[in-house]
Design goal:
This protein is 32% helix and 26% strand. By secondary structure, it is α/β, with parallel strands linked by helices. The protein has one domain: Peptidase C15, pyroglutamyl peptidase I-like (Aminopeptidase). It has a seven-stranded mixed beta sheet, with helices on both faces. A two-stranded antiparallel sheet has the order 5-8. The protein has a two-stranded antiparallel sheet with strand order 6-7. Helix 1 crosses helix 5 and helix 2 packs parallel to helix 4. The longest helix is centred in the last third of the chain and has 16 residues.
Length: 201
């Protein structure tokens, strides 16, 4: 069976009117010509309590072979493919439900960290070859992005061995940078999947 892909974004947070990852998802889901795979798209709430359950519900429904979560990074200037998820919640600002955990685990009694199971080096090499500024990151922060990243890998490790999972941070940037970021995620999709149908949730 050919691989299937679940790709996620986040809703706006921190007082912003938009989230670049959701803009990217909306753009690539409309452009059917670039969706060379069995792809499911999902926008997650920026909530510690709600984001991971929403993600796992869709994983259990569609059983994708690969899961890529996108997050907005306000303090980065290039695409960052995350290597490590930490079992730590230390939110600098409240999430969209007002929760602000400080020095709490994502999963009680879980391991300190998980490594992404995406082909990180291959993706970086491919994006570099396309002239896109990209780097490997060794910290996904300690906000909702990291909570989802860690929770995803914890679930995969326990329930879906063999499934690939990872996280990519997209710089917030300016409006004129959005087409380049859309192109970058399209390249990631082409690297990770190869079928034709698309599902939206």
């Amino acid at each position: 069976m050919k691989p299937s892909l679940l790709i996620t974004a986040f809703e706006p947070f921190g007082g912003d009117a938009s989230n670049v990852t959701d803009e990217i998802l909306q753009a690539i889901s409309r452009d059917m010509t670039t969706n060379k795979g069995d792809i499911t798209y999902l926008t997650l709430p920026v909530s510690r309590d709600d984001a991971l359950p929403a993600l796992l519900d869709v994983i259990e429904t569609y059983k994708p072979d690969t899961v890529v979560c996108l997050g907005q990074a306000n303090d980065r200037s290039e695409l960052s493919i995350e290597r490590v998820a930490l079992n730590l919640c230390c939110y600098r600002i409240p999430d969209n439900k007002g929760e602000q955990p400080d020095d709490e685990p994502v999963v009680m009694d879980g391991p300190a960290a998980y490594f992404a199971t995406l082909p990180v080096n291959e993706l970086v090499d491919r994006l570099n070859a396309e002239g896109i500024a990209v780097s490997i990151s060794y910290s996904a922060g300690t906000y909702v992005c990291n909570s989802v990243f860690y929770g995803l890998l914890h679930f995969i490790n326990g329930s879906l061995p063999g499934t690939r999972g990872g996280f990519i941070h997209v710089p917030r940037g300016a409006a004129e940078d959005l087409p380049e970021m859309i192109r970058a995620i399209q390249i990631v999709i082409r690297c990770l999947s190869g079928k034709e149908s698309v599902a939206h949730v």
